[in-house]
Structures are given as structure tokens and as C-alpha cells.
Amino acid sequence: MNEAASRIRHRIFELVREFYHEQFDKPAFVPGKTPVRYAGRVFDDREIVSLVDSALDFWLTAGRFTEEFEASLGAFIGTRFAMAVNSGSSANLLALSALMSPLLGPRRLKAGDEIITVAAGFPTTVNPIVQTGMIPVFIDVEIGTYNTTVDRIRRALSDKTRGIFLAHTLGNPIDLNAIGQLAREKDVFLIEDCCDALGSTYGGKNVGTFGHIASFSFYPAHHITLGEGGAVATNDPAIATAAKSLRDWGRDCACNSGENNRCNQRFGRQYGTLPFGYDHKYVYSHIGYNFKVTDMQSAIGVEQLKKLPEFCRRRRENFKIWEKGFQRWSDSFVLPEATPCSDPAWFAFPVTVRNTALFTRTELTEYLDRHLIETRNLFAGNLLRQPAYAGIGHRVAEDLANTDIIMERTFFLGTYPGLSGEMIDYALGVIDAFIKERG
């Protein structure tokens, strides 16, 4: 960049900062008029400046910002490899597909293998199992943690079991010690869906470092956002190589976009029955996808990652405010519980309306909605009751009684960093008024 262009670029940055304060500075909270969201993007002028910086490069695919984001993300999580993708859903599909790679030899997954998972969750944990031709085996969860247990997993095992694919529900880690030990004992893959759990820890270690591969999502509701975006992370070089190839059209070449001849043998090798010296940039070792992220998204992520520790602190703090407020109504609600040994960076505050309460979930959530307080159900409830899953091949390993309770009576409130104590106090007051009306 020449000197004149650099000066113009920095003038643009100053204008962007000025624009941010004019456009995005938030007005004061007005109870009953300002919505209390369950989630949302939290950003300042630094994300917008970084986004504009990448736009001025006009490098429209993955580039310098993506390299920085991936390196910073891997360092934060504590994995050797972290690869950015275009969504958390793609991350889940990529994670499972990578475990089917020929690079893994006889341990690779294949169509028809059974993967143990739960029915109470978000569809994109289960979808890749179906999409890759494997068989989801559904087990129940516990009310309170909203996670399953190692005993439930053990009872669901069969001679076809090759993997365990579980989400850390709403940021609450699964029992990683026991489940990890079982996976090693039975020589099956453990896939961690960390889409709601970036920054949660178990035994002092970040989630995403216990299994063979992990997925993350950076949708605006999550712990950091790239708008759309996600990532996979692993410590296994073969799995990482497979994931990168599958993400990048299935090509064998490891060069980044715009890079040539990293291996110094671009035209000097034999690949299958291709002519000797066939351009390595056009050799394909997997039937892959294009899941790459753009550099503009990564530019936002670079700044969001710097805020992640503070975001997680505020999520934990907001959770504690909700928890203290709800304790007075413990006869009406089952309150959430962190898994032993864990410190969740809670995605949300989940509660289950007891069957002895004088109201239903819907009656309360409709009342909250009228007072501009957002709630969400615990995602799909029982996935097997959803229309899309009526005809899938699957096995149900046990009664899904708790999953059905969650479908009928569970909802959650937000913990995201954009919530203030004042907002939560207002919402608690509205809930208090509702419960008093119901006697």
C-alpha cells in the first residue's frame, strides 16, 4: 500500500468510529418499552473498523484475517488445529465427515455405523449423522443439567457403536471425564458440539479439547459472532488434514487461497492414475464441500475473540442474577445445575415448569412476550417428534421421558453480555407479578 492510500485508509477508520457512535450507541433501558432480548451481537467500533479494513483489502475469501483468527481461536481453546468455516452447522457436518476420511485407515467411520446422541437438542447435532448415512441412537437427558450421563451412554452401546456426538447443552459441559474414559475404553470417537459453549471449562480445561474433534458456532446468538460462521478444532493431525481438505472442495493441496507450491512439488508427483506431474492444486483426495469463511467475517472475529473472556464473565454473572432471583420460586421451577467439575459460560438460563405449578410454560412465556421479554424453548424439544425426522433411520435406546418433559415444560432466558442487571431485575419483577396473579 502506498503512503497516500494508507492515509486515506486511516481517515476512513476515523469516520467509521464516528459513524459507530452516531448509529449504534444505545439509549438507556426503559422498562416495558426496551426489549429484553435472549441473545444478540455485542460489538463496538473496533469490529466495524476491522470489517472495513478487510473490505478495503478486497480479498473476498479467507486471507490474512482468517489466518489470525484461526491461530487466536486455537490458542484460546487449547488445540493444535482450528479451522474456520461458514457456520456451526457446517462445522458439525465437517467434523463427522472428517472422521470418515480414508486418512484415518481402519478406524474411520462409515455409513451404517451407530452414533450415540440425544433427542433433546438442536437439529444440527443430529443432522450430520443422518446426512452421512450413519444411524443416530437416541438417549435421554437429565432435567436440570439438560445433559445425558455416562450410564445412559453405556446402556446404549452396541457392537455397531462407533461414535458419541453430544452438545454441551446451553454451555453446560457434559461429564467429560467419565464419557471420555468410556470412549477410550470402547475405542469410539467422541465429538464435542461446543456451538453453545465456547469458553466453558471442565476441570479447568476448555471444552473442545477432550474429544477427537469439536465444533463451534459464531452465529449472532453465540458467545462471539462473525454474523454467520463456525469452526472445527482438533489435536489430531490426520483429522485436521481431512477436515481442511473437506472444507476446501476436497482438494489434496494444503495451500491457502492465493498460495502456490507450498510443498515445492506442485508438478512433481504421481496421484492415482492421473498423469505424472498433474497440478497438485487440482488433485482431490476427498469428496468435499466449500465451507470456507470470508476474510470479512474473520476480521470481525479477530476483535470479538479479544472480548471473549469478558463476554464469558458477564454471562456467568448474569446467570447468577437469574439464579438468585428464581430461588424464591423453586416450588414452581426446576432450576439449572452445572455439571460437577465444570464452570459453564452459560449460553442461557434454562428452567423447567414443575407439574405442580399453577401455570403452564406457554402461559408464562406468552405473558413475558407481552412485556417484551424474550424466551426460547430448549430448541427442538424431542427431535423425534419433529416432522423432519419422522422417517429417518434410527434407534431409540431408552424411554425419552425427560426429553418429553423438556418439550412440554422447559424454556430459557438470556445471559448474553448485552443484558444488564437492570434488565434482568425488570424481568424478574414481571415474573413475580405473573406468579402472584396465579396465586
Describe this structure in words.
- The chain has 439 residues and is α/β, with parallel strands linked by helices.
- The protein has two domains: 52-297, Type I PLP-dependent aspartate aminotransferase-like (Major domain) (Aspartate Aminotransferase, domain 2); 308-437, Aspartate Aminotransferase, domain 1, CATH 3.90.1150.10.
- 38% of the residues lie in helices and 14% in strands.
- The protein is built from twelve helices and 15 strands.
- It has helices at 3-24, 45-57, 64-77, 88-98, 123-131, 150-156, 176-186, 237-247, 295-326, 361-370, 401-409, 421-437, and strands at 81-85, 114-118, 135-139, 161-167, 189-193, 201-202, 205-206, 213-217, 230-234, 333-334, 342-343, 348-353, 376-377, 395-396, 410-414.
- An eight-stranded mixed β-sheet has the order 1-9-8-5-4-2-3-14, sandwiched between helices.
- Helix 7 (176-186) links the parallel strand 4 (161-167) and strand 5.
- Helix 1 (3-24) packs antiparallel against helix 2 (45-57), helix 3 runs parallel beside helix 9 (295-326) and helix 9 crosses helix 12 (421-437).
- The chain is flat, with a radius of gyration of 23 Å.
- It starts with a helix and ends with a helix.
- The mean pLDDT is 97.
Task: Put the structure in a nutshell.
The protein has helices at 3-24, 45-57, 64-77, 88-98, 123-131, 150-156, 176-186, 237-247, 295-326, 361-370, 401-409, 421-437; strands spanning 81-85, 114-118, 135-139, 161-167, 189-193, 201-202, 205-206, 213-217, 230-234, 333-334, 342-343, 348-353, 376-377, 395-396, 410-414. With 439 residues, the protein is an alpha/beta fold. It has two domains: 52-297, Type I PLP-dependent aspartate aminotransferase-like (Major domain) (Aspartate Aminotransferase, domain 2, 3-Layer(aba) Sandwich); 308-437, Aspartate Aminotransferase, domain 1.
